[in-house]
Design brief:
Elements (H helix, E strand, L loop, with lengths): L1 E6 L14 H12 L6 E3 L2 E8 L2 E8 L6 H12 L7 E6 L7 E5 L7 H10 L5 E6 L9 H6 L4 H24 L1 H8 L3
Parallel strand pairs: 1-4, 1-5, 5-7
Antiparallel strand pairs: 2-3, 3-4, 6-7
Helix pairs in contact: 1-5, 2-3, 5-6
Length: about 190
């Protein structure tokens, strides 16, 4: 069986250090921790495959831009025979306080265009989510500008500090299941 872990983000150096790329950052750390170094282009995504127990673990970073990332994920689910309900998606979340990490199964897209695209392509939103809290923009700043702007040093450091926790949450889901991960990461 194949397990698909997808980090949402936007390709290109101009987006690399933005809040919207929190999912990519988590996938990169997971790859480093699992000693995965070979990435290939596949189905519109950068993909790395390793073994986790008896399963293939597929790490993916869609290169189709956030708003249409579901196209790449849908193709990968089909290619690897993964169950859509067992796909783990890591993404930034404006509705969570900065510094928090939460795990959940299913739900709506909450205005997140990447999740909207995934839900459309996977035929529903019953996939597993690891949500990286980035908080709301200050004042009346547009949310799109907030998630796509280069971060000030202090904000970048705070986001970097959350990435290991989110990576650990993904591993917790993989090793002990989504219910255990929700109890562990949603308690605070």
């Amino acid at each position: 069986m194949s397990i698909l872990v997808v980090g949402l983000g936007n390709p290109g150096p101009e987006y690399a250090e933005t809040r919207h790329n929190a999912g990519f950052m988590v996938i990169d750390l997971l790859a480093e921790n699992l000693r995965v170094s070979y990435w290939k282009e596949q189905a519109g995504a950068k993909v790395a495959v390793t073994r986790l127990g008896d399963d293939d673990l597929v790490l993916a970073k869609p290169q189709t831009f956030m708003n249409i990332s579901g196209k790449a994920v849908g193709k990968l689910v089909e290619m690897y025979g993964a169950k859509a309900s067992e796909v783990i998606v890591v993404h930034d979340d404006l509705d969570l306080p900065e510094g928090s990490v939460r795990v959940k199964r299913g739900g709506g897209h909450g205005g997140h265009n990447g999740l909207r695209s995934l839900t459309e392509q996977l035929g529903g939103g019953d996939y597993i989510r690891v949500r990286v809290g980035i908080g709301r923009p200050p004042g009346r700043q547009d949310a799109a500008d907030f998630v796509l702007e280069p971060m000030r040093r202090d904000a970048a450091e705070r986001l970097s500090a959350m990435i290991p926790t989110a990576a650990q949450a993904v591993l917790h889901v993989l090793e002990r299941g989504v219910d255990s991960a929700m109890q562990e990461y949603n308690a605070s």
